[in-house]
Amino acid sequence: xxxxxxxxxxxxxxxxxxxxxxxxxxxxxxxxxxxxxxxxxxxxxxxxxxxxxxxxxxxxxxxxxxxxxxxxxxxxxxxxxxxxxxxxxxxxxxxxxxxxxxxxxxxxxxxxxxxxxxxxxxxxxxxxxxxxxxxxxxxxxxxxxxxxxxxxxxxxxxxxxxxxxxxxxxxxxxxxxxxxxxxxxxxxxxxxxxxxxxxxxxxxxxxxxxxxxxxxxxxxxxxxxxxxxxxxxxxxxxxxxxxxxxxxxxxxxxxxxxxxxxxxxxxxxxxxxxxxxxxxxxxxxxxxxxxxxxxxxxxxxxxxxxxxxxxxxxxxxxxxxxxxxxxxxxxxxxxxxxxxxxxxxxxxxxxxxxxxxx
Length: 358
Prior knowledge:
Elements: H1 5-27, E1 38-40, E2 44-46, E3 50-58, E4 62-70, E5 73-83, E6 87-95, H2 98-102, E7 109-118, E8 134-135, E9 138-139, E10 141-148, E11 153-155, E12 162-164, E13 168-176, E14 180-188, E15 196-206, E16 209-217, H3 220-225, E17 229-238, E18 250-251, E19 253-254, E20 257-258, E21 260-267, E22 305-307, H4 336-357
C-alpha cells in the first residue's frame, strides 16, 4: 500500500529540515575545533587534584568526567561534575576524588581522559546510563597529561579564533609555578596530527602565580607577515634568572609534555583597506616560514619579551562544573549567534511551507 500524500509530505519536510541543519552547520563561520558537544584539556600540573578543562560545550544538562588511562582507554573514574544547562565554558575546574588523588605520588605524571556525558536526570552520575556525548559521529572526549606538582596551566582557546589586529594576542589564564614567561610559538602543519610548535614569535615575562588576560606582543616581523588565519602554541617557560627570554629558559613540563595550549588567530588588517591573505602568504607567494626569536633587550622597543599586563582579577580556573555554567555562555560568542540565526531562518521557512501545503 502506497503511503498517503500527507505522510509523503511529512517525510519530505523532515528530510529537508535535516538537510537544512547540515547545510547551516557547514556554512556557519565556526573554528575547526568548535562543535556542539566538545571538550578540550591540555597538559598541566596540579597541587591538589584540581584539573582545569580548557573548553567544554554542551547543548543540554550534562556531566564532565575524568578517567584514568587504561592502555589508551577510559579506565577508573576519577571525578564527575554536573554541567547545568547548555553553554560554552572555559577553564572549568574539576577536582579528582581525594582518595584517588592520595594514591598519586609527588612528581608523578599520568595520562587522563576527559569526557562529556549525557544526564539522564536520575540525580547522580552513572557512566553506563549517562552515555558519552557525540558530535558528528565523534565522541566528546580528550586526553592529556596531568602531573602532581606545583600548579601549571595555560588556557586561551575559545569558541572562535582570536582576532589579532594590533600585533598581540591575549592569553586568558596563566598559572606559573615559578617566575618565567608565557611564549607564543608559530605552529607548523596546523590541523594535522603532526602539527608542532616551532620557534618563538613573542613572549611576556610573568611572576610566579596566577594571571588573567595576559598580553603577548608578537614580533613585528611575524605579525606583519601574519595572514588571515594562523595557529599559535602558547607555552609556559621557567626563567633562568638572566632577565630575558632565551635558550637558557626551559619549558614547564607535565611529564614529557610541555604545558601548552594551541589556538587559532585571525588577522583583521585595516592598514591596507581590509586585505585578506593566507597565513604566511602576505605578498601572494608561498613564503611561509618560522621566525626565530632573539633574546630580549630591555632597551629595545621591538624586543621579544614584554612585561605582563594582567586584569585586576587574577587568573585561575572558573567556578567548578556545578556552578550553573554562569562563567561563560554561548551568548555573544562569535559564530554561535550566526549559526542559530541561520538555523532558525531555514527551519522557519520550512515550517511555514509545510503548514501551507498541509
